[in-house]
Design goal:
2 copies of one chain form a homodimer. Chain A is of the alpha/beta class. Chain A is 50% helix and 13% strand. In chain A, helix 8 crosses helix 10, helix 9 packs across helix 10 and helix 15 packs parallel to helix 16. Chains A and B meet through helix 9, helix 13, helix 14 and helix 15 of A and helix 9, helix 13, helix 14 and helix 15 of B.
């Protein structure tokens, strides 16, 4: 029934299914309207009625093949008891976690209660979503979560968090183990609530030194994929290890993930040549092209399709939609992709 | 005579030569002392006496094998007539270039006059540097320079600059061509003044979409390498295309560069297996490890050496030294590397 889910069953459809990372968000005036009605960004994430509305907004405008639940990767630290806030223009602020005391500071006790609005959002959204559209759940990968949790904010190099990780590798690995379990439980609950596919965002994979890649990226991701496939065999699961570079092959083989979202710098030709043919590729239009529009956007869409060489894939961006994106360019992009054969 | 230069002649020395990106800089108290004596950061870059002093500071403290001239990649736009300033804490600010008018806005007329202090710095430094130490000159690669010149400041995604590039590919390519020539001339002049090897910094290579990689990264770099090797055959030339990921093999083959500096996410094992054996590898300690120090630093140094498997290489970081780095950790690192066999 769903073109998106069919891809993972080996059923090729007429044209690639399409969705966009951050498709529900600041580039849509109707999102900004809803956003105004909530004091903080997290209030919106935790308001099932509004979060469901926002989740469905892009699908009302564009014939997308999937909705991704409106939430945030920092819901996990927040539901574990860490203080998280979002200030306009400065990005997320967390009460920084000290690695030494993470076991006392974090507690799973109220996790499901705290995160309950997310599952309610899924429930509500699912009931309003056409069965021809897939509903995507997501979480941040342990590495990316741990960086934010220790650093306390976004950063170009996350030097403080990485410093603590290097100085106390054993405890950092324990934190990643802990987060792997929490992420697994959060994702399992999302599937129970109605999502049909998952995406794991490892936004800062490119900041992991190659020497620690197996321990800090692959191993936690493998655990999560394994937990999920134990609970739900054949559930499509897409990884997005941004900036992972030449480690992508290892990542795919070791984690046994069923799909991978390519960042803008990964050539599709490299992916088709070097990654297993059973793997579902997703990507990888430069979000700036969606801002630019025009001939360069068209050319890039055709180029992605051509490079995929008939292999089934999901059309997406190589990173999230930028706030300054004109919705009309998104519409053009979807129309072109829907016409690809 | 120089262990660093010997590497490029196929002469292996007892232990890998070592230097650090940003080895002259804010982590050194003696640098901060000199910096105080100049009003702006560019005043320091353009003061041959002080710039030479700062260039040599790290070599007075540590037995490094090379000095890299104290300058900045934004000297090029500045010497072409673009307004450039550095404000404390906020990074560089440029009077943004509009792509349409770059030919009127930039002029090469006074370039050599404007950049003369850089060549004088080289001259001065060379006269004071032991012949056993190599002197490194450098420039920013056209792609990275163009991003700063159009965006007008540092950015996480350089969406404005990339947007203009996509919307007007022809003019953007012309700008890259122009910058390739300017970078070549600036580097040639540096060699004439006394540098014995070059490094080309393409800090934002990871922001180039794979589809435009040949046009915007490889092709300009190839032109520069070709211009330099025409003027100075056998001159060692190291590229640093940060975040280039799986495109690194193409970059090396297409540009005919003699060395490549690996970023932290590139596994050395990947490089030794996939890059030509004649290529000199440089790298790739995580700068955060130099901040952390201790056992994790030691372990990482030994791991790099082991992974290089006897192949001649230059020990370096995977990116620049962080300002919060304790100089004592730098000393420890150099000592360990000097003891590697």
């Amino acid at each position: 029934m769903s073109q998106f889910l069919d891809i993972f069953k080996g059923i090729k459809s007429c044209c690639p299914p399409i969705w966009f990372m951050r498709q529900a968000g600041r580039y849509l005036p109707e999102y900004l309207e809803v956003r105004k009605r909530c004091k903080g960004f997290l209030d919106l994430c935790y308001n099932p009625e509004l979060a469901a509305e926002v989740t469905l907004q892009p699908l009302k405008r564009f014939p997308l093949d999937a909705a991704i639940i409106f939430s945030d990767i920092l819901v996990i630290p927040h539901a574990l008891g860490q203080k998280v806030s979002f200030e306009e223009g400065t990005g997320p602020k967390l009460d920084p976690l000290s690695l030494d005391s993470f076991e006392e500071r974090l507690t799973f006790k109220n996790f499901f209660k705290n995160a309950a609005p997310v599952y309610q959002t899924i429930h509500l959204t699912k009931s309003r979503l056409s069965p021809s559209k897939a509903l995507i759940g997501f979480a941040g990968a342990p590495w990316t979560l741990a960086l934010y949790m220790i650093e306390g904010e976004g950063s170009r190099d996350f030097a403080k968090a990485k410093g603590q990780a290097f100085e106390n590798e054993k405890v950092f690995t324990a934190l990643l183990d802990y987060l792997s379990e929490v992420v697994s439980l959060h994702l399992i609950e999302q599937v129970k609530a109605g999502v049909q596919t998952l995406q794991l965002f490892d936004t800062w994979a490119g900041l992991c030194p190659a020497t620690h890649f197996e321990k800090w990226i692959t191993s936690p991701t493998r655990k999560i994929v394994s937990n999920l496939s134990e609970a739900f065999p054949n559930l499509p699961f897409i990884g997005f290890p941004k900036g992972i570079g030449t480690n992508l092959g290892e990542y795919v083989t070791q984690t046994k993930i069923s799909g991978v979202s390519l960042d803008i710098s990964t050539p599709i030709s490299w992916a088709t040549e070097n990654l297993p043919s059973s793997l579902i590729l997703e990507g990888n239009l430069d979000p700036v092209l969606l801002v630019a529009g025009g001939e360069s956007l068209k050319k890039a869409i055709f180029s992605i399709h051509e490079e995929m060489q008939g292999r089934p894939y999901i059309f997406n961006l190589g990173h999230g939609i930028l706030p300054q994106t004109p919705p009309s360019h998104v519409e053009t992009c979807v129309q072109i992709v829907k016409g690809l054969r």
